[in-house]
């Protein structure tokens, strides 16, 4: 990052576009400088064997081999990269540590970095959500209570909704509009004061909740919320489509931390599988069978189902 700022060049790395892959190798950094592909490697002395810090015959217990063998592996990578018409720039760990003691500007830059923690896709998975907004009700005069259910919701989503494909591009700065991303979204977000059905799930003590105030939820406060905006905000990782809905309902960003976006969302990823089992389900449910169903009834049912899918 410091080299990128100092030389005013764009370097692709783990936090900016992901590590560049050169056949079987991944490069710590990659840049196209004056038309020349350039590889950047930061070599930890312990992991790559630095002759200034370790003896070649010493055994690296963590890597399970000698430092000399680690050095040979590193040399092979350098030679392969250079044979692929790449320029190769290496910085050793001990060299950078010496620079930190001498270069005040470098030290200031390192201290100013605020790097977010890695995105964890598992943190966006909260499981099935169920809730009773009213536990008991007696129907009043002229009032009927109806049961409303979603039939085969998961197969429907598999059949018609978008799914991410491949590896995400990681973005941690220079964010664009939320609509331009599809994937994972890590942020701090302010909740609206009044929303009957909150949007964003939040886990507290291994319990799934949908709060409008972090502090009230964590402290199990049941009285009226009087927390500040800072005390109410949520921090977490959600899917971009969840965050988009939240924004529509009155949430607003405090700070965007990191985004993992997929280039080409794939529609109809499970179309054939879902169609096959949906048909089986309908037939066993008796909807498309039975002597009492005539051609007109079947056509009406098919048009209704098609309208729901295309809605």
Automatic annotation (TrEMBL):
GO terms for biological process: DNA replication. It is an enzyme of class 2 (transferase). Keywords: DNA replication, DNA-binding, DNA-directed DNA polymerase, Nucleotidyltransferase, Transferase. It catalyses: DNA(n) + a 2'-deoxyribonucleoside 5'-triphosphate = DNA(n+1) + diphosphate. It comes from the Eukaryota. One of its GO terms (molecular function) is nucleotide binding. SUPFAM superfamilies: DNA/RNA polymerases. Its EC number is 2.7.7.7. Belongs to the DNA polymerase type-B family. This is DNA-directed DNA polymerase. It comes from Pleurodeles waltl (Iberian ribbed newt). The lineage of its organism: Eukaryota, Metazoa, Chordata, Craniata, Vertebrata.
């Amino acid at each position: 990052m410091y080299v990128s700022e100092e030389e005013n060049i764009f370097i692709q790395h783990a936090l900016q576009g992901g590590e560049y892959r050169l056949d079987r190798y991944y490069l710590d950094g990659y840049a196209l400088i004056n038309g020349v592909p350039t590889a950047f490697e930061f070599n930890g002395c312990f992991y790559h064997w630095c002759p200034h810090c370790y003896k070649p015959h010493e055994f690296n217990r963590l890597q399970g081999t000698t430092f000399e063998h680690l050095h040979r592996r590193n040399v092979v990578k350098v030679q392969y990269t250079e044979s692929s018409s790449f320029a190769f720039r290496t910085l050793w760990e001990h060299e950078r540590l010496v620079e930190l003691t001498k270069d005040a500007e470098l030290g200031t830059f390192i201290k100013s970095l605020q790097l977010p923690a890695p995105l964890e896709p598992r943190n966006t998975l909260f499981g099935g959500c169920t809730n009773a907004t009213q536990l008991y009700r007696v129907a009043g005069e002229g009032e009927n209570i109806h049961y409303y259910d979603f039939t085969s919701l998961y197969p429907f989503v598999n059949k018609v909704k978008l799914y991410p494909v491949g590896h995400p591009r990681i973005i941690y700065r220079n964010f664009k509009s939320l609509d331009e991303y599809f994937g994972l979204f890590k942020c701090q977000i302010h909740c609206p004061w009044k929303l009957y059905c909150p949007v964003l799930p939040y886990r507290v003590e291994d319990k799934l909740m949908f709060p409008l105030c972090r502090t009230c939820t964590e402290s199990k406060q049941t009285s009226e919320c009087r927390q500040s905006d800072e005390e109410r905000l949520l921090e977490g990782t959600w899917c971009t489509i969840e965050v988009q809905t939240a924004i529509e309902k009155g949430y607003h960003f405090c700070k965007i931390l990191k985004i993992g976006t997929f280039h080409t969302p794939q529609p109809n990823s499970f179309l054939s599988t879902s169609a096959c089992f949906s048909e089986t389900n309908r037939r066993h449910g008796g909807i498309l069978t039975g002597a009492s169903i005539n051609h007109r009834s079947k056509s009406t049912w098919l048009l209704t189902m098609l309208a729901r899918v295309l809605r």
